[in-house]
Exocyst complex component (Monodelphis domestica), 770 residues
Amino acid sequence: MYGLLLEEDKDQDYENALVEIESFELPIETTLRSVYDDQPNAHQKFMEKLDACIRNHDKEIEKMCNFHHQGFVDAITELLKVRTDAEKLKVQVTDTNCKLQDAGKEVIAQTEDIIRCRIQQRNITTVVEKLQCCLPVLEMYSKLKEQMNAKRYYSALKTMEQLENIYFPRVSQYRFCQIMIENLPKLREDIKEISMSDLKDFLESIRKHSNKIGETAMKQAQQQKIFNVILQKQNNINMGRNMCITNGKILQERNEVTSTYAFEEEDENEEEVLTVQDLVDFSPVYRCLHIYSVLGDEETFENYYRKQRKKQARLVLQPQPNMHETVDGYRRYFSQIVGFFVVEDHILHVTQGLVTRAYTDELWNMALSKIIAVLRAHSSYCTDPDLVLELINLIVVFADTLQGYGFPVNRLFDLLFEIRDQYNETLLKKWAGVFREIFEEDNCSPIPVANEEEYKIIISKFPFQDPDLEKHSFPKKFPMSQSVPHIYIQVKEFIYASLKFSESLHRSSTEIDDMLRKSTNLLLTRTLSSCLQNLIKKPHIGLTELVQIIINTTHLEQACKYLEDFITNITNISQETVHTTRLYGLSTFKDARHSAEGEIYTKLNQKIDEFVQLADYDWTMSEPDGRASGYLMDLINFLRSTFQVFTHLPNNNNDHAAMSGKVAQTACMSACQHLSTSLMQMLLDSELKQISMGAVQQFNLDVIQCELFASSEPVPGFQGDTLQLAFIDLRQLLDLFMVWDWSTYLADYGQPASKYLRVNPNTALTLLEK
């Protein structure tokens, strides 16, 4: 039973497969695969079902054909009947067509002529219309060519805009229009290249003319400054002039007349004022800017212009290697820089956006840093103060010029203060050489004058006042040497040189006064002081010259107050002002005097040593010669004549007299103490092994001469036997050996009232052994 059901299911599957094949709804591969899958003898059974199906369909076809066969035969019979009528109708239609064709040939020909004429007429109308559209385009393009040939590039660009926006859209379908459209970018590039070439020529031109532009601008700024100064003076005169009434008439001051004459002369000599437009043609810049603006490429033009100008700025700021040798080198350098920034300032104000204030400020700050570095480097090579002063004046004019164009120049004026120190150093070096020459030419002797005229010449050079000297008859001598008035004159010249610098800095009178005093103090305390110290230390300077130097420094010290008055008269700043700097001449010349005094003491001691070295004692002699040694007598005579020189020290007032007496006393005391020490060292010399009593007695004679010299008061002012105490150590030691009073020495040793209090036991023992 189960096998029958399974067979029926399988037959049903075959029936479904045949239905699917006939319907073509599923792919045949799928249907066949479902039939053959896992079924033995499936192929044979399926083929049997398929043949049975085919036979059924053949039977159905045959039935249908048999059913419609009679109808088909009837239709064929009908067609055969109408065949003859159709052929007759065809012949009639053909004849009728031939007749119609022959009758319409003339009409057709006329109609074709009419059509042809109408087409020609329409074409002509169309051509006229198109030409009317094209003619303005062609005229504008021709105008464009003419503008290009005439180098009217800005107008040509405007024409191009009209062609592109108005005319070309009307005729864009034509080939010639496409050619024109394709040609416009090339024309624009040509215009850009030509305008850029003109700009390059312009940049090269202004690079060459920067020097001239700068010179003109600096000259105008300087003239304006002079004019302002004259105008200010004129206003001051008009406001505060002094009137004097003589015979009922009011007379103007002479300086007012002079100022009025200056104004008239200024008006007569006024030259035509040149501007930067007169020196440079800026049209290439304007033209190029407009062209690039029209082309919409203004940013490219601005960047190119700024880039090229920055390159030119770097070239302008690059100094020449030997610029510091002449003022012309600095003048050319400044003129080029001024010319560069004058052009940029003009471009800033006449164009919109090509350069901006921020750009010029950035460029100026970069340039200012470079300028300051260059000036610092090159000015350091300047050793000529005149060249430094001219450089300073150029910097001031340079700063004033650029300040007039709105550029900040405070850093330049700060630089001037740095150069001021360098200028002062240069002046100090120059005046150091001047002072050395003065000292080398000075004979270190008082200035002789033979008559009143020579006397007045010296008085006119140096503020010397001495009523006693005025009473003396000619010939007479000034106490100072020739170097004093020369130094005084040179100090005033130094003040003038410093003033030339200070006046250029736009500073107040108080600041100028302070600068002059500080510079003068440097000259006195450093330069002049150093020259004096070097002079004092020179080997060939003797005692007489040292005494004269002391006299000279005293008078120079007294002249310092006149130098202060001189500065006050220049600056009109009273010395009573709280912040007024005082001159340090007092301490400078005091130090020089102390050095000279010390050198006097040193040279005296050296001279004493030279005489002592001439001593030739016979330390074994049995009897003394009965007189002092020759070398010692020569030494004493030398000291007497030397101390007489000190009478020439200035004593025109009590202070000077006290000072001269102190110097002389100190020198005399120092000489006696040194002589005593030298004689003592001679006795205690380790190479001296034996001394006879005769030699001691001879040595005693020499010490007696020394004591006589001390008691003769070679220099007045010593109290009692103060000077003799310089030889007390020698005297007590020699007395001990001459009297041979050893018992007293030993008994009183260490007692304040001892007769031999100054005798050192070791010294006495050493001499006793000898």
Observations:
- Confidence is low (pLDDT under 50) at residues 240-271, 650-656.
- The longest helix spans residues 42-149.
- The two ends are 175 Å apart (CA to CA).
- The beta strands are 244-246, 249-251, 447-449, 476-478.
